[in-house]
Amino acid sequence: MIHQSKSYLKFLRTSRNQHGVHSPFVYQLVTQCFYKRQQHTAYEIIKSYKKRIRKNKATISVSDLGSGSRIFKSSERKVSKIGKFAGTKLKRAKLLNRIVRYLNILKALELGTSVGLGSVAIAAGNENTSVLTIEGCPETAKLAKDNFNSFNFENIELINGEFDNVLPKLQSTFDLVFIDGNHTKNATLRYFEALLPLSHNDTVFIFDDIYLNKDMTKAWELIKNHESVTVTIDTFKWGFVFLRKEQAKEHFVIRV
């Protein structure tokens, strides 16, 4: 918590809005996507899904395959509590949904399904977008899959398996990669390297919880300086990474 607090104070000092952003690509992304607040029908779907999760009082046994939970002390967890504390927040879900539309994402990959809020944020209202989401915990994966079926999400495919076992089997290229699982430095870097061959010039990587701990922040710094990376956007909660070869290497810290 001390690391997060110090990092957030630094973020507040160094972050900016669209003013002072001289990259046309980033300026348009911030003004036309990040800050676009108009309502969209997809938001109601996301809200309904989130409401379903929050009302689910069932208890499941969660297998933590990554860094573990800072909030839950037991593997036995109420679904409603997972949705409240561990799932993608509504504000971020709306942002993710806008990003998919704005960047015309056709193929998305998510590492870390949890109860499915991130997957739904990508898929809702974006019928032309196919979402492949991977979850290591069997009970969590079953819960998410059942909920996807209840909401008739035909554009979401869920694989239950450990990331390191599933990633080598993937052959498709992805337009968006959302990494929201196993929040450790070595694992994050390993997934990034493994997924680079499945990316292209316009792929966007989104890393969750880049200031969760010192290790995750170190991973974020190494990714920013990776030779394949040109543009990064630090929004504190999420780190955005672009590989656009036509862009000069530049790092932005943006309030969202």
Low-pLDDT stretches are none
Strand content: 15-25%
Shape: globular
- Distance between the ends: 21 Å
Cα-atom Rg, whole angstroms?
17 Å
What would CATH call the class?
Alpha Beta
Tell me roughly what share of residues is in helical segments. Answer: 40-55%
In N-to-C order, the SSE pattern is HHHEEHHEHEHEHEHEHEEE
Using DSSP, what is the number of strands? 10
Name the assembly state.
Answer: single chain
Mean pLDDT: 93
Spatially, the strands of the biggest sheet line up as 5-4-3-6-7-9-8-10
Number of helices: 10
Keywords, separated by commas or semicolons:
256 residues; alpha/beta; Rossmann fold; two-stranded antiparallel sheet; 10 helices; globular; O-methyltransferase activity; SAM-dependent_MTases_sf; Methyltransferase
